[in-house]
């Protein structure tokens, strides 16, 4: 009996030694927040630079979505290049809404128009909640940014929006509807095909009333992205033809990359382009 008990004790000790815990990104705070505009709950992931607690300076802000992959990618990239190739920055990631399928969450929050018959999205079921980007943008401008400004030292005149795929569509929508919300944008593989290329109509309406577009934009697509690459070229040509004042645009096709493999490369390039030392 003593032998059996001793064996059980050893097993319990070993199980405790090998107990798992969730991986956490260094220097990153998690803040719960509920939107007043769509009543959805989210988490903010605030990644601070290494020197944050040793300085009194205000840092540029990078706001990023699709945090199931983007926040870890951004953190890894910055771990390598921050303070060397680029300035130190604060990264704020907004999670998908808590308790919602991520494909439904991003369809609801990142698309500008209701398009229930759009077959290029995640699913027709997800499309039933599409077109609520206005509420999401209000959430960012009225709640997320004020909270971050209140709790952290942020240079409020150096804010960058990062978006990929639907997130790139969202970033372009923000650019054309609330152009002063961010000073710069890194937009990857934007879904300009969405809802019969409705983003072109949105841009046209903006151009009818405005001669300036105060922003610096880096936009990218992967070399293997056929339709997205085509639409990106088209959109870039439209923007160039407007000759907007106070507008800077850089576009790149990154060779031998797909819709998914391009993200880390474009984010690195965009960060160096905007914040290179």
From TrEMBL:
The keyword Signal applies. GO terms for molecular function: hydrolase activity, acting on ester bonds. The keyword Signal applies. InterPro entries: AB_hydrolase_fold, Esterase-like, Siderophore_Hydrolase_D. It comes from the Bacteria. Residues 1-19 form the signal peptide. Keywords: Hydrolase, Signal. It holds the Pfam family Esterase. Belongs to the esterase D family. PANTHER family: SIDEROPHORE TRIACETYLFUSARININE C ESTERASE, SIDEROPHORE-DEGRADING ESTERASE (EUROFUNG). This is Esterase. It comes from Pseudoalteromonas luteoviolacea S4060-1.
